[in-house]
Amino acid sequence: MPKAALLIISLLSLSLHAQNNALVKEKDVLEFRKLSIQRLGQDALDTTKWDLGGNFGIQFTQASYSNWQAGGVNSIAGNTIFTGFANYTGKGKWVWSNAMTLAYGVNFQDTIFNKTDDRIEIESRLDYLHSKKWSYSALLNFRTQFRPGYENPGDIGDDVKISDFMAPGYFLFGLGATNKPNKRFTMFLSPITAKATIVTVQRLADEGAYGVDPGSSYRLEAGAYANITYKRKLWMNVDLQGRIDLFSNYVEDPSLIDINSELIMFFKVNKFIKANISLAYIYDHDVKFYLDENNPDLGVPRSQFKQVLSIGFSYDFGAAAKDE
Question: 299 to each of 285, 290, 292, 295, how far by Cα in Å?
Fold first, then answer.
């Protein structure tokens, strides 16, 4: 009997020891899996990153006059602008940068309604890093506007439409290289660039507006393209931001360079109030201005200037707020 009892106790002891070893091994496996998942997740966080952010701003001005000796016209003006970005840093050497600008401004003056700003611009650039300062790049840019524009807005019977959504619309695609020596300066150079101008308003297309052949709704160009941006904090509450786009058509006279540039200075009053002054300059040899409306052959290109001073509500969000 004692031998039988001893045998049973020995078997139970071996069984419990085996179960305990199995539980320890299972626990070790689960702990290993947990650590592996955590490490993989940490590696993913360390090697891939999205930077999302932007700014929303709105400005208003109003003037009202009653028996004002010096004279004046009642007016209300407003402008809103949204800028956003989504930048992705992936595993290896890939970087994907995306930016969007949406802006619309109006002025209502003595029953006359005018646009003061109207922009849609989207840009995407894919970079493969070659060194700390240079990368191989592909860039896509799209520009158009929201609403129609008129030659003489407010004049009854003379509201001749001169622009609209996708009239014009610009698409540009380029392959080249990007130089980014620091956070302030970026330069994209493309010797291989395709540019398309779209005019969806048939009357404007028939007139050959925006450089398209009369009757055609689009124009294709091949050439070289350069895009340069610069940002700098001048003082604690003053920032400068500049951009210039240059395009030269290989087929037609390459010396006739299209220019699209903008310089903006931001003045921060407090977290939600900002003032800014912007200067824009555009020159496009294909966009004609007609001195004699009855003679379309007299159209000539001209330099275009725009200056805007505004103050109002401004809100930074996402990564843009962290940079403040």
Answer: 11, 4, 8, 8
Which residues sit opposite 81 in a β-bridge?
57, 103
Rounded-to-integer distance, Cα 123 and Cα 230, Å: 16
CA-to-CA distance for 53 and 86, rounded, in angstroms? 7
Contact between 295 and 324 (Cβ < 8 Å): no
Structure tokens that stand for 213 in this block = 């052949």
Q: Which two tokens stand for residue 195?
A: 């540019």
Calpha distance 13→283 (Å, rounded): 92
Tally of residues, the chain: 324
User: What does pLDDT average to over the chain?
Assistant: 84
Q: Which of 248, 140, 262 is nearest to 191 (CA)?
A: 248
Give the closest residue to 159 by CA, choosing from 147, 171, 170, 169. 147
What is the pLDDT, as a whole number, of residue 45?
Answer: 46
The label of the residue with tokens 């439409």 reads 161
Statement: residue 174 has pLDDT above 60: yes
Nearest to 291 by CA among 281, 301, 305, 304: 301
- HEC states along 73-103? CCEEEEEEEEEEEEEEECCCCEEEEEEEEEE
Instruction: Indicate whether 140 pLDDT > 80.
Output: yes
* Helix or strand (DSSP H, E) at 22: helix 2-47
